[in-house]
Amino acid sequence: MSDLHVVLGATGAIGSAVVAALTARGHRVRAVSRHATSGAGQPRASGTAGETAAGESGATSSEPLMTAFAADIATAEGAVAACQDAAVVYQCAQPKYERWAEEFPAFTRTVLAGVEAAGAKLVMADNLYVYGPVTGPMTEDLPHAATNPQGRARAEVDALILDAHRASRVRATLGRASDYYGPGGTNTTIGPTIFAAALAGKTARWVGDLDQPHTVAYLPDIAAALVTLGENDGADGRAWHLPAAEPVTGRAFLDLVWAVAGGTPKIAGLGRGTQRLLGLVNPTVRALGETWYQRDRPFVADDSAFRAAFGPVEVTPHAAGVAATLDWYRAH
After folding, report:
1. Cα(90)–Cα(174) distance, integer angstroms
2. What is the edge-to-edge ordering of all strands in the sheet holding 44-48?
3. How many CB atoms are located within 10 Å of the residue 215 CB?
4. Per the record, where are the segments of Low complexity compositional bias (predicted)?
5. Residue 3 in 3-state DSSP?
6. What pTM did the predictor assign?
7. Closest Cα to residue 109, out of 161, 155, 71, 181?
8. Domains in the chain, ordered, with CATH?
9. What is the Cα–Cα distance from 277 to 238, expressed in whole angstroms?
């Protein structure tokens, strides 16, 4: 039986973290991106089973543990080639944020075709957009009530995946996470405008109300949880909220950043008015306005179902995650 785990979007923040988590657990990995190598027939190898097998220095296998693979998974040919021989496929790729409504459903159908052709299991790196505005902590049994284009697109994608599972076309599971931060996390609202800014002595800006509790996830914790879903058949057929450290206000999070970064703290919240102005010239910032309900009130995910099913679960405390993220920004 194949133990090949394929990561789509392997050079993105979540994808690269999933690759690292998989190799740390000794799985063979195909890391797929558009420009991974000079050609799909010439994968780049990294590491061997013998080098990474949890301290087992006696291992002698020289088989590469990770190979990089170039493919355009927006095409049927590319998706089938990328997923060939896979046991599990992790879908960490996506269209540009402002293009979700126009492109995400068709993109997902193509990926599903590749997973189905391989006879593999699909693990979808998902988010919390499907629920729309809520009162109280979010649980997986909430209705998919989002009415904005971004939320409707995610709901359609999730339905496509779970319908394919129910029809026995693929085995599938979805792992939902809130806003993330961590090493390599640059295309996120909890990224350069906070960490790089603090290291430069500039104002660190939180998107939204500084005093509302918000679930934020640390990238390596997201990756570890997605791999757990991939490894467990009991995860199949439903969505899970991935475990994260306790909810935190923007003000408290920025205080943690400055405590580690040093210097004179400078913090600010990016409010709705500023978002509207920036959105006039930046389509990604403009699209954030559709989901501003995630930023002007409590936005808290309940991850108790995952913990009950796959626990005990250890997540990274925010102080440690912030320190590791600042170290990464210093080095890059």
Report:
1. 10
2. 44-48, 64-70, 28-33, 4-8, 88-91, 121-126, 171-176, 239-241
3. 23
4. 45-60
5. coil
6. 0.91
7. 161
8. 4-331 (3.40.50.720)
9. 39
Contacts of 204 (CB under 8 A, 6+ apart): 193, 194, 195, 197, 198, 254, 257, 258, 266, 267, 268
- 287, amino acid identity: A
91 in Cβ contact with 125 (< 8 Å): yes
- Write down how long the chain is: 332
Say if residues 144 and 158 touch (Cβ distance below 8 Å). yes
pLDDT along the chain (332 residues), means of 10: 91 97 97 70 43 33 81 97 98 93 96 98 98 96 95 97 98 97 95 96 96 98 98 98 98 98 95 85 82 94 98 96 98 94
Burial environment of residue 3 by CB neighbours within 10 A (0 to 12, 13 to 18, 19 or more)? exposed
Most distant CA atoms of the chain, gap in Å: 61
Q: How far apart are CA 121 and CA 125, in angstroms?
A: 13
Tokens of 88: 């599990």
